[in-house]
Amino acid sequence: MQEAGRAAKIAIMADFTAPAPSEAAKIGDYLHARGHIPAAPAWSPTDLVKRYLPLALGVLFAMGAMALAFQTRASWSSHREWVVPTATPLLAIGGVSLAYMVARGKITSIIWPAGFLFVVIVLTVFNAWRGSISTGHDTARNVMTIFAAILLGIAVVSLIITMVVTEVKDPAKAPAPKT
Helix-strand-coil percent breakdown of the chain, rounded to 5? Predict the structure, then answer.
């Protein structure tokens, strides 16, 4: 009797000697029945904002870094067209790093990089204003442009380093499963 039951089990199991494993008869119909699949969880608008806020901030901050780079390049008297496209990957990673740190609530870790970014924004605004009131060669605009470019580079690199160091010291953990 046991031998017959065992033979029946073997007959309905997958054939692993075949070139591709297959089952002649599906014995687990309950696994594939649509009625047994749980419904997708309902997402409230607040849950969606929490879920996609890091991504949205990353895109927003990366776009801001790119805008600063293009505005700084636009104020150069001799255009170096290769600079911004070359720096684009680092600027995008810096923006995503800033968003990641903000989303994780690690604001104290980004005080210095954010300070550099603030100075870059101030220099960019003054540079644009100065460009609207002056014509020709302007040493003050050149100085602001050079400082803005250097500080933007320092801010982006320090954001990336800060994100990596924070992730190594305090890695992000998945939330506990809801029961």
Answer: 70, 0, 30
Roughly what angle, to the nearest 10 degrees, separates helices 83-103 and 111-133? 140
62 Cβ neighbours under 8 A, 6+ residues apart: 91, 92, 94, 95, 96, 99
Distance separating alpha carbons of residues 120 and 69, to the nearest angstrom: 10
CA distances (Å), 107 to each of 5, 40, 65, in order? 65, 34, 18
Is the pTM higher than 0.85? no
pLDDT of residue 25: 66
Number of Cβ atoms within 10 Å of the Cβ of 166 = 18
